[in-house]
Amino acid sequence: MIHVKARTSPYPGSQVKRFPVPDNYVCWSVTWPDYEPVDYTAETVRTGPEWADPDFRKDGQSEHGPRFNALNGKIDRRSFLGWYELDEDKLPRNPMGRTGIISRGLLGKWGPNHAADPIVTRWKREAGEKVIHEISGKPILQFVAIKRKDCGEWAIPGGMVDAGEHMSTTLKREFGEEALDSLTASKIEKNHLRKLFQSIFSDEKATEVFAGYVDDPRNTDNAWMETVAVNFHDDAGDSVGQLNLHSGDDAGQVQWSDIDKNLQLYATHSNFLKSVTELWDAHW
């Protein structure tokens, strides 16, 4: 499959338009001498925050840049897709092909930018019984969905892996930050909910459903998103499943959503949910 969202314009958070890349020119193996991608790095990245790489091209010292395809100090610059090539400027080349933009856009790292997406699910129930979809004849799963502040789209709560951070830590931290902190609850209530959610975040309850490249609108020719999506399922509905999550007054922020193929979600999150329904033989 070729990436699609990674070629959309304008680039997120800007009015920058990508150099148009037709499907038949996405692959790097196809020669394209007329390719003139736009060079764009967002101001939030160029100012040099702690989470971003420096622009080692400024002084022409590309040979002193990060060690790609390797564990570079605390930063893991390896890709789930395996070895990725470097271009003539010794910059990582997006393994899925051209995007119409070079440099980093909104992404902090050259090459793969790793994220973790916790998919927390329960069975949809009425009067204590699983709800069966009338068309598929299979039980309906629900997942904890959040509404992203940057684009307004519904998504799986998740975020970037910090340097040196274990993936399991990221999953717990991001769920707490993105899901629990969106609830209109008191500090005491949130602390109680946080402890309840932590009970399901254990290795024996975790099932990895995806690890790889993400067709993300922030991707560029030199920087791209990769993620690990992990399912934490409350089968009995006696822990996190008993929570009645609801939106705040300022429009929806966090809620239980029915999983269905018609859901419109951020990036490739729908694909992750499809894998979860296959895992539990649930409605899709």
Helical stretch count?
4
Q: Are there runs of 5+ residues with pLDDT below 50, and where?
A: 247-251
Shape: globular
Distance between the termini: 21 Å
Strand elements, count: 13
By helix and strand content, what is the structural category?
A: alpha+beta
Beta-strand portion reads 15-25%
User: What is the succession of H and E elements?
Assistant: EHEEEEEEEEEHHEEEH
Biggest sheet, open or closed, and with what strands and sense? 7 strands, mixed
- How much helix is in the residues? 10-25%
Please tell me how large the radius of gyration is.
20 Å
Mean pLDDT: 88
Q: What would you say about this model in short?
A:
The chain is of the alpha+beta class. Helices cover 14% and strands 23% of the residues. The strands form 4 sheets. Strands 5, 8, 9, 10, 11, 12 and 13 form a 7-stranded mixed beta sheet that branches.
Question: What does it look like?
Answer:
14% of the residues lie in helices and 23% in strands. The chain is of the alpha+beta class. Strands 5, 8, 9, 10, 11, 12 and 13 form a 7-stranded mixed β-sheet that branches. A two-stranded parallel ribbon has the order 1-4. A two-stranded antiparallel sheet has the order 2-3. A hairpin with a 2-residue loop joins strand 6 (125-126) and strand 7 (129-130). It is globular, with a radius of gyration of 20 Å. The model is unreliable at 247-251 (pLDDT under 50).
